[in-house]
Design goal:
alpha/beta; 4-stranded antiparallel β-sheet; single chain; 6-stranded mixed β-sheet; 256 residues; Rossmann fold
């Protein structure tokens, strides 16, 4: 039986200083080896969920729990969550001028290894890893050496994030609308990278508006998030139904 990697129970969250509730009793269990897609209308709480799990400022947890592989994430700072094996790919990846991808990733890897009391990676092993993982997402070697996302196209930024995911090898990866703004070629490459990175020891959560991403990445489960709760769960056929009908027919659905 696969072990549970992410277990969210009765999660309530609001925007800090406003008291506006966004998540209203969300439950989600993700096991090793699984891909979960989360869909829903604008304002449903999809990106808020990603932000709360990763520890982004600006939100207050008012009830519930978020455990990753037995660790209470809500007690950890964002960097500690990353070191425990959580990865978040942003909807709009930020540029970091003056910091090369190579230095950024080697520093991140060695920070994780230090946290886990492991031996730092050598320069030789690191560069071998860079070459191997770059091929996974068809990332040009020149991009790997440039400043993080600086001057990258939208597709290159998303590809670079999947490259970072490949290098860091997280337990749980959350991809927040990683298909946003991608043309078909870039979408295909990014999706192929995600498919290659899936294994029996990790889990992937895809947050998306559109069914088209699920033509390339086949989820084990599709969840519909509406008004701060998961109101329906199914397989890929649910995504096709949403594409055809929209979300209005689910507004009165009960949480599953």
């Amino acid at each position: 039986m696969s072990k549970t990697l992410l277990d969210i129970k009765n999660l309530h969250a609001e925007i800090a200083d406003e008291g506006k509730a966004i998540l209203k009793g969300l439950n989600l269990t993700v096991k090793a080896g699984e891909i979960h897609a989360i869909m829903g209308p604008n304002g449903a709480g999809k990106s808020t969920l990603a932000s709360v799990i990763s520890g982004k400022d600006g939100y207050e947890i008012t009830a519930g729990s978020v455990d990753m592989d037995g660790i209470n994430l809500l007690e950890l700072d964002p960097d500690e969550r990353a070191k425990e094996g959580l990865f978040l790919a942003f909807q709009y990846p930020v540029e970091i001028p003056g910091v090369s991808n190579i230095n950024f990733l080697r520093t991140a890897l060695n920070e994780i290894k230090e946290y886990r009391k492991e031996t730092p990676i050598t320069a030789k092993d690191f560069m071998a890893m860079v070459r191997e993982k770059s091929k996974l997402v068809e990332l040009d070697a020149k991009l790997a050496s440039r400043s993080v996302n600086e001057g990258f196209s939208g597709g290159e930024k998303k590809r670079n994030e999947i490259f970072q995911m490949a290098m860091l090898e997280p337990k749980v990866a959350i991809l927040d609308e990683t298909d946003s703004g991608l043309d078909i070629d870039a979408l295909r490459i990014v999706a192929a990278g995600v498919n290659k990175l899936k294994n029996e020891n990790n889990a992937i959560i895809l947050i998306t508006h559109y069914q088209r991403l699920l033509d390339y990445i086949i989820p084990d489960f599709v969840h519909v998030l509406a008004d701060g709760k998961i109101v329906k769960t199914g397989d890929k056929s649910l995504a096709l139904e949403l594409e055809e009908k929209g979300y209005d027919w689910l507004t009165e659905a009960k949480t599953v």
